[in-house]
Recover the amino acids of this structure.
């Protein structure tokens, strides 16, 4: 799933490539992605693109006061096309959900596709005058890169969730998902199962510093990259996430995994839990 660093990079990419253009035709290949119907998606056509923005994991394009906002969810992505086909895509064929065509001042006619891999279709698109009218944006906590250390401490104190869950709860803190929460907790040397409200002041400082460092580094590596290269850039910077069975780059211990029904997370026992192996729900069920 694209998280804050990738969304910021995509925002900057759109600011550089789409702002100043005029929206042309909008092709909807999967009607299920549209979560609003008034104004219709056709209302975007003919509008100048005046800006781009983000709210947590939501990405937005400002079309002269009318926003096209998307949440790419778990399997979604944005793909820029310099020379798109003139023919409208066939509905329901392949991963394409929506295509937006542009006319640039230079006379070019690029487009971007919103695509979604897999069978669980959760990618969402809203056409709104006010981004705060999108329910999932209205519920967001403060942006992970904008929150101050004292505010961060208060947020953690106000929830009794496990720290892994608190970091990924978008109503607590916006922008962090499964991957970067693994990296942040590894850098902070904290167990994913630690209770957020139970962290001592030194641990909170360590966690905040780790969060800032992990996200800042990822944003620095991602901004300026072509949209097609962002996924690879994200994977290349990971120390524990997605590296089950490989050696921890810090201590050399084996990176371990805790798996649930439809997701998993990775950690290093030596770095984060004092050597304790966390219970893997999937393996526990198999051993019963």
């Amino acid at each position: 799933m694209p998280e804050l660093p990738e969304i910021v990079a995509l925002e900057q990419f759109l600011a550089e490539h789409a702002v100043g253009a005029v929206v042309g035709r909008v092709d909807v290949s999967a009607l299920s992605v549209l979560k609003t119907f008034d104004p219709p998606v056709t209302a975007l056509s003919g509008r100048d693109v005046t800006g781009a923005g983000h709210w947590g994991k939501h990405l937005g394009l400002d079309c002269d006061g009318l926003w096209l906002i998307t949440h790419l969810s778990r399997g979604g992505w944005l793909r820029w096309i310099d020379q798109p086909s003139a023919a409208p895509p066939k509905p329901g064929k392949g991963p394409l959900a929506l295509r937006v065509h542009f006319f640039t001042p230079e006379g070019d006619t690029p487009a971007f596709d919103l695509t979604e891999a897999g069978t669980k279709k959760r990618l969402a698109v809203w056409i709104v005058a006010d981004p705060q009218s999108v329910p999932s944006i209205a519920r967001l906590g403060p942006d992970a890169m904008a929150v101050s250390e004292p505010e961060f401490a208060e947020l953690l104190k106000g929830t009794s969730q496990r720290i892994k869950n608190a970091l990924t709860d978008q109503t607590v803190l916006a922008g962090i998902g499964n991957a970067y929460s693994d990296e942040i907790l590894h850098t902070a040397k904290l167990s994913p199962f630690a209770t957020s409200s139970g962290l001592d002041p030194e641990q909170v400082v360590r966690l905040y510093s780790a969060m800032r460092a992990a996200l800042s580094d990822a944003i620095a590596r991602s901004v300026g990259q072509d949209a097609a290269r962002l996924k690879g850039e994200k994977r290349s910077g990971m120390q524990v996430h997605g590296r089950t069975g490989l050696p921890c780059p810090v201590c050399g211990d084996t990176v371990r995994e805790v798996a649930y029904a439809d997701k998993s997370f990775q950690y290093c026992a030596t770095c984060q839990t004092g050597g304790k192996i966390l219970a893997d729900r999937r393996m526990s069920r198999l051993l019963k």
